[in-house]
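thread: overnight batch results

M.L. [08:02]
morning all. the overnight job finished for the chain we discussed friday. pasting input first so we're all looking at the same thing
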Amino acid sequence: MARTQSADLVVIGAGMVGGWASWFAATSGAERVLVLEKDLAGQGASSRAAGVVRAQGGTPATVALGRFSIEFYRSQQARLGTDSGFRELGYLILAVTKRDVRDGNARVEMQRDAGLDVRWVDAREACSLNPTLATDGHRGGSFCATDGAIDPPRNVRAYSLAMQQAGKIIALHHLARRCRPRICIRRSCVGRRRRRHYRNRRRRSDWLHRPDCGRRSAP
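M.L. [08:03]
and the structure it wrote out:
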Protein backbone atom coordinates (compact mmCIF):
# COMPACT_ATOMS: atom_id res chain seq x y z
CA MET A 1 0.00 0.00 0.00
CA ALA A 2 1.25 3.48 -0.81
CA ARG A 3 2.56 5.44 2.13
CA THR A 4 2.12 9.19 2.00
CA GLN A 5 3.49 11.96 4.17
CA SER A 6 3.01 15.69 3.81
CA ALA A 7 5.58 18.36 4.56
CA ASP A 8 6.01 22.10 4.18
CA LEU A 9 9.40 21.49 2.59
CA VAL A 10 11.15 18.49 1.07
CA VAL A 11 14.94 18.66 0.95
CA ILE A 12 16.87 16.26 -1.26
CA GLY A 13 20.23 15.48 0.30
CA ALA A 14 21.64 15.95 3.81
CA GLY A 15 24.84 17.64 2.75
CA MET A 16 25.88 21.07 3.97
CA VAL A 17 23.34 22.96 1.86
CA GLY A 18 20.46 20.58 2.52
CA GLY A 19 21.25 20.19 6.20
CA TRP A 20 21.45 23.87 7.02
CA ALA A 21 18.52 24.67 4.67
CA SER A 22 16.30 22.26 6.60
CA TRP A 23 17.36 23.83 9.91
CA PHE A 24 16.72 27.39 8.70
CA ALA A 25 13.31 26.33 7.37
CA ALA A 26 12.36 24.58 10.62
CA THR A 27 13.41 27.57 12.71
CA SER A 28 11.72 30.08 10.40
CA GLY A 29 8.15 28.81 10.50
CA ALA A 30 8.02 25.51 8.63
CA GLU A 31 6.05 23.00 10.70
CA ARG A 32 7.34 19.87 9.02
CA VAL A 33 10.53 19.43 6.98
CA LEU A 34 11.38 16.18 5.23
CA VAL A 35 15.01 15.42 4.32
CA LEU A 36 15.78 12.55 1.94
CA GLU A 37 19.31 11.16 1.92
CA LYS A 38 20.61 8.02 0.20
CA ASP A 39 23.72 7.82 2.38
CA LEU A 40 24.86 9.34 5.67
CA ALA A 41 24.79 13.06 6.31
CA GLY A 42 27.83 14.81 4.90
CA GLN A 43 29.38 11.73 3.29
CA GLY A 44 29.91 13.53 -0.02
CA ALA A 45 31.78 16.77 -0.63
CA SER A 46 30.46 18.41 2.54
CA SER A 47 32.95 16.60 4.78
CA ARG A 48 35.83 16.92 2.31
CA ALA A 49 35.54 20.50 1.06
CA ALA A 50 38.10 23.26 1.57
CA GLY A 51 35.69 25.04 3.91
CA VAL A 52 36.45 28.55 2.64
CA VAL A 53 34.07 31.25 3.88
CA ARG A 54 34.50 34.70 2.37
CA ALA A 55 32.46 37.82 1.87
CA GLN A 56 34.53 39.09 -1.07
CA GLY A 57 31.84 38.36 -3.61
CA GLY A 58 31.50 39.76 -7.10
CA THR A 59 28.07 41.34 -6.58
CA PRO A 60 26.35 43.15 -3.69
CA ALA A 61 24.11 40.09 -3.22
CA THR A 62 27.04 37.70 -2.80
CA VAL A 63 28.78 40.14 -0.47
CA ALA A 64 25.64 40.25 1.69
CA LEU A 65 25.41 36.45 1.63
CA GLY A 66 29.04 36.12 2.67
CA ARG A 67 28.63 38.59 5.53
CA PHE A 68 25.49 36.76 6.68
CA SER A 69 27.35 33.44 6.62
CA ILE A 70 30.24 34.80 8.69
CA GLU A 71 27.90 36.28 11.28
CA PHE A 72 26.01 33.00 11.43
CA TYR A 73 29.16 30.98 12.02
CA ARG A 74 30.26 33.42 14.71
CA SER A 75 26.92 33.04 16.53
CA GLN A 76 26.66 29.25 16.37
CA GLN A 77 28.03 28.45 19.81
CA ALA A 78 25.58 30.78 21.51
CA ARG A 79 22.62 29.68 19.38
CA LEU A 80 23.27 25.96 19.08
CA GLY A 81 25.79 24.98 21.73
CA THR A 82 28.07 23.74 18.95
CA ASP A 83 29.86 25.27 15.96
CA SER A 84 31.44 24.60 12.59
CA GLY A 85 34.95 25.56 13.67
CA PHE A 86 35.00 28.89 11.85
CA ARG A 87 38.32 30.77 12.02
CA GLU A 88 38.96 34.29 10.78
CA LEU A 89 42.18 33.79 8.86
CA GLY A 90 41.88 36.56 6.31
CA TYR A 91 41.56 36.06 2.56
CA LEU A 92 43.80 37.50 -0.14
CA ILE A 93 42.74 37.58 -3.81
CA LEU A 94 45.81 38.24 -5.92
CA ALA A 95 46.05 40.33 -9.08
CA VAL A 96 48.44 39.15 -11.78
CA THR A 97 47.74 41.48 -14.70
CA LYS A 98 46.96 45.17 -15.05
CA ARG A 99 43.40 44.22 -15.86
CA ASP A 100 43.24 42.21 -12.62
CA VAL A 101 44.31 45.34 -10.74
CA ARG A 102 41.70 47.49 -12.47
CA ASP A 103 38.90 44.99 -11.97
CA GLY A 104 40.03 44.24 -8.42
CA ASN A 105 39.95 47.87 -7.34
CA ALA A 106 36.48 48.27 -8.85
CA ARG A 107 35.38 45.16 -6.96
CA VAL A 108 36.80 46.48 -3.69
CA GLU A 109 34.94 49.76 -4.18
CA MET A 110 31.68 47.87 -4.73
CA GLN A 111 32.30 45.67 -1.70
CA ARG A 112 33.05 48.64 0.54
CA ASP A 113 29.85 50.33 -0.63
CA ALA A 114 28.08 47.11 0.44
CA GLY A 115 29.50 47.47 3.94
CA LEU A 116 32.45 45.08 3.78
CA ASP A 117 35.72 46.01 5.51
CA VAL A 118 38.03 45.13 2.63
CA ARG A 119 41.10 46.90 1.24
CA TRP A 120 43.59 46.77 -1.59
CA VAL A 121 47.19 45.88 -0.71
CA ASP A 122 50.30 46.21 -2.85
CA ALA A 123 52.66 43.33 -3.64
CA ARG A 124 54.92 44.05 -0.67
CA GLU A 125 52.10 44.06 1.86
CA ALA A 126 50.61 40.95 0.26
CA CYS A 127 53.87 39.13 0.96
CA SER A 128 53.84 40.33 4.56
CA LEU A 129 50.29 39.01 4.96
CA ASN A 130 51.27 35.67 3.43
CA PRO A 131 55.00 34.95 3.83
CA THR A 132 54.74 31.92 1.52
CA LEU A 133 54.10 34.19 -1.49
CA ALA A 134 56.85 34.89 -3.99
CA THR A 135 57.94 38.51 -4.17
CA ASP A 136 57.26 38.67 -7.92
CA GLY A 137 54.60 37.39 -10.30
CA HIS A 138 51.73 39.36 -8.79
CA ARG A 139 50.62 42.96 -8.26
CA GLY A 140 49.06 42.74 -4.81
CA GLY A 141 45.37 42.16 -4.36
CA SER A 142 42.29 42.60 -2.23
CA PHE A 143 42.32 41.52 1.41
CA CYS A 144 39.56 41.01 3.96
CA ALA A 145 40.68 40.11 7.48
CA THR A 146 37.30 38.69 8.56
CA ASP A 147 37.17 36.03 5.84
CA GLY A 148 38.26 32.57 6.84
CA ALA A 149 37.33 28.91 6.86
CA ILE A 150 35.27 26.30 8.68
CA ASP A 151 36.25 22.74 9.56
CA PRO A 152 34.16 20.61 7.13
CA PRO A 153 33.76 17.45 9.30
CA ARG A 154 32.97 19.63 12.31
CA ASN A 155 30.43 21.51 10.21
CA VAL A 156 28.68 18.24 9.33
CA ARG A 157 28.46 17.44 13.03
CA ALA A 158 27.14 20.96 13.75
CA TYR A 159 24.28 20.88 11.25
CA SER A 160 23.45 17.28 12.16
CA LEU A 161 23.00 18.26 15.81
CA ALA A 162 21.11 21.41 14.80
CA MET A 163 18.69 19.34 12.70
CA GLN A 164 17.96 17.13 15.69
CA GLN A 165 17.51 20.09 18.03
CA ALA A 166 15.03 21.78 15.68
CA GLY A 167 12.49 19.01 16.39
CA LYS A 168 10.50 19.51 13.17
CA ILE A 169 12.83 17.70 10.79
CA ILE A 170 12.28 14.13 9.66
CA ALA A 171 15.32 12.61 7.97
CA LEU A 172 14.77 9.45 5.93
CA HIS A 173 17.47 7.14 4.64
CA HIS A 174 16.74 5.56 1.27
CA LEU A 175 18.41 2.87 -0.75
CA ALA A 176 18.79 4.56 -4.11
CA ARG A 177 18.31 1.43 -6.23
CA ARG A 178 15.27 0.22 -4.31
CA CYS A 179 13.48 3.47 -3.73
CA ARG A 180 12.18 5.95 -6.24
CA PRO A 181 10.24 8.56 -4.31
CA ARG A 182 7.58 10.59 -6.08
CA ILE A 183 7.13 14.16 -4.94
CA CYS A 184 4.19 16.28 -5.99
CA ILE A 185 2.71 19.58 -4.88
CA ARG A 186 -0.89 19.71 -3.76
CA ARG A 187 -3.00 22.61 -2.61
CA SER A 188 -4.23 22.40 0.96
CA CYS A 189 -7.93 22.93 1.67
CA VAL A 190 -7.17 25.24 4.58
CA GLY A 191 -6.13 28.71 3.49
CA ARG A 192 -5.27 27.40 0.02
CA ARG A 193 -1.79 26.78 1.34
CA ARG A 194 0.62 24.81 -0.80
CA ARG A 195 2.13 21.77 0.84
CA ARG A 196 4.50 19.19 -0.55
CA HIS A 197 3.48 15.54 -0.42
CA TYR A 198 5.94 12.71 -0.47
CA ARG A 199 4.76 9.37 -1.82
CA ASN A 200 6.63 6.17 -2.44
CA ARG A 201 4.85 3.20 -4.01
CA ARG A 202 7.83 0.94 -3.74
CA ARG A 203 9.47 -0.46 -0.67
CA ARG A 204 10.84 2.27 1.58
CA SER A 205 13.65 1.85 4.06
CA ASP A 206 12.35 1.76 7.61
CA TRP A 207 15.49 3.30 9.00
CA LEU A 208 15.19 6.83 10.26
CA HIS A 209 18.43 8.58 9.56
CA ARG A 210 19.20 10.72 12.55
CA PRO A 211 22.03 12.81 11.09
CA ASP A 212 24.52 12.73 13.93
CA CYS A 213 27.78 12.01 12.16
CA GLY A 214 26.94 8.71 10.63
CA ARG A 215 24.73 7.03 13.20
CA ARG A 216 21.46 5.41 12.18
CA SER A 217 18.77 4.36 14.56
CA ALA A 218 15.44 2.71 14.04
CA PRO A 219 12.33 4.84 14.65
